[in-house]
Amino acid sequence: MEKENVPQHDGNLSKKNLKELVYATDENGNYTTALSTGWEPKAIALSNAIDDIKERAEEAKLKVQNGELSPICYFMELNKMDLSILAGYVEMWKWRVKRHFKPSVFAKLNDKTLQKYADAFDISLAELKNFKTD
User: Fold this and answer.
1) Could you say which of 1.20.58, 1.10.260, 1.10.3470, 1.10.4100 is the CATH number of the domain covering 53-129?
2) Which residues are in coiled coils (predicted)?
3) b/e map of 77-110 (b: 16 or more CB within 10 Å)?
4) 111, 94, 101: which is closest to 69 by C-alpha?
């Protein structure tokens, strides 16, 4: 793609005054870099991904309200994490983190363990322990 033809679509990146670095060719045919605010297919894909994340967070919130899941699962979804990423942040095995999704297990966790989760989610311990779904 030629440098002057780098896409500048009004999408999610441009609304936040963000640009991404892309490679393009200059007038001599040499590779160089250029800034782009994105292009329509990428904007659509990004928008769909964000909608999917919001939907999963809402589903997790409902399951916390119904007593099916602990707040850990909700905050994981809200922070765009998956089980592997969260396990890495809290330095625990995935199976152990998944076990903490159970409300009965969550209720028995000590403050030291809960603080690891609170730090990973960048919230206070009180916010995690006293999570309200309203």
Assistant:
1) 1.10.260
2) 43-70
3) bbbebeeeebbebbebeeeebbebbebeebeebe
4) 101
- Intervals of CATH 1.10.260 along the chain: 53-129
Q: Are 106 and 71 in contact (CB under 8 A)?
A: yes
Size (the chain), residues: 134
Chain centre distance of CA 124 = 19
* pLDDT confidence band for 14 (50 / 70 / 90): low
Reference 97, options 82, 80, 79; nearest CA is: 82
Closest CA to 54 of 87, 70, 78: 78
Beta strands in the chain (DSSP E): 20-25, 31-36
pLDDT digits 0-9 by tens, 54-96: 999 999 999 999 999 999 999 999 999 999 999 999 999 999 9
pTM of the model as a whole: 0.74
